[in-house]
Specification:
Blueprint: H1 4-19, E1 24-27, H2 32-45, E2 49-55, H3 63-73, E3 78-82, H4 84-90, H5 97-119, E4 123-125, H6 130-137, H7 154-158, E5 161-163, H8 171-180, H9 185-188, H10 208-224, E6 232-245, E7 251-263, E8 271-272, H11 277-290, E9 294-300
Parallel strand pairs: 1-2, 1-4, 2-3, 4-5, 7-9
Antiparallel strand pairs: 6-7, 7-8
């Protein structure tokens, strides 16, 4: 039986031993995995820890401000770094999902390594969980925060020693730890969001314009599904287009948005959530009326397996 209180006590002491007299950084995204890692690290290290948020241009609307406020309310200050240019440049002209993920990983660690050098820090704590490792090692998809398990030495490649306090946990245990740490419900119950952000919800090449489009669709889907009891609900922008009709009755060749909703316990398997038609129609109406250039909205009902939860 998993004991969250005992886990916290052991991990705080473990982090102190691992870091020793050094200073460390931890990057947060607002998700439960990185948030739990940050709070554990703060308990262990206090002033020896710098908490950072990488504003990579691939997050949901208002993410940097919302995350900063949540942590400030918990007494933890966050430094925001604008690294958008680094990420979009890294993924320019890439269309293959694995190549995009690898480019994101490179930009992610390069950015953190640069910040660490500025701060004179060589230790990075990150919220890798068991599902991240399993999917990467099995070749399902490369998670950006998995390195040593696939033969990359982060100390040699990026100059960073990486510490992963929650690597043996799956999402349900991480949520239990978050609750024991008194994290707010907005983090504990937050639906999972991929490490590479909206880049993997843009099928094909990632551009600021495409990301902005799927960001707007994401906001609409999340607002309308906030009371839907599902593991994850999100929007995807396909690389194809479809013929549509404008409000004036003229032909338009527009973008296609897919709505994806799944139920899962640990993200290793998943079944599609049965969204009521009335709610789907409401999402559809808002997406096509509020986002110029969208001509079609689809609803994905594929389970995992054979599909993955995310499209890429």
């Amino acid at each position: 039986m998993f004991d969250a209180k005992e886990f916290i006590s052991e991990k705080v002491e473990w982090i102190r031993r691992e870091v020793g007299g050094e200073k460390a950084i931890v990057a947060v995204s607002g998700g439960v995995d990185s948030s739990v890692t940050a709070v554990l690290a703060f308990k262990a290290l206090k002033s020896k820890l710098t908490v950072v948020f990488l504003d990579d241009g691939l997050m949901r609307e208002g993410e940097p401000e919302a995350v900063t406020k949540i942590f400030k309310d918990m007494g933890i200050e966050i430094e925001i770094y604008d690294v958008k240019k680094n990420f979009f440049q890294a993924m320019k002209n890439l269309t293959d999902p694995e190549e995009k993920r690898k480019a994101f990983r490179q930009a992610f660690y390069n950015s953190l390594a640069n910040i660490a050098r500025e701060l004179g820090v060589k230790i990075l704590l990150q919220g890798t969980i068991a599902a991240d490792v399993v999917e990467t090692v099995r070749g399902v998809k490369s998670q950006h925060n998995v390195l040593e398990q696939i033969g990359i030495n982060p100390l040699e490649k990026f100059g960073l020693k990486i510490i992963e306090p929650v690597k043996e946990l799956y999402k349900p245990e991480v949520r239990k730890v978050a609750k024991e740490l008194n994290l707010p419900d907005s983090i504990i119950n937050r639906k999972p969001f991929p490490g590479p952000g909206l880049s993997i919800r843009v099928i094909g090449e990632v551009t600021p314009e495409k990301v902005e489009l799927v960001r707007k669709a994401t906001r609409i889907v999340e607002e309308e599904s906030k009371n839907l009891p599902s593991f994850q609900v999100f929007a995807v922008l396909l690389n194809d287009k479809a013929t549509g009709i404008t409000g004036e009755g003229t032909r338009a060749y527009g973008n296609i948005i897919v709505i994806r909703a799944v139920d899962s316990k640990d993200a290793m398997t998943a079944e599609p959530t049965g969204i009521p038609w009335e709610l789907l129609f409401k999402m559809r109406n808002r997406i096509v009326s509020e986002i110029p250039g969208v001509s079609r909205v689809l609803y994905d009902i594929t389970s995992k397996p054979p599909a993955t939860i995310e499209f890429e």
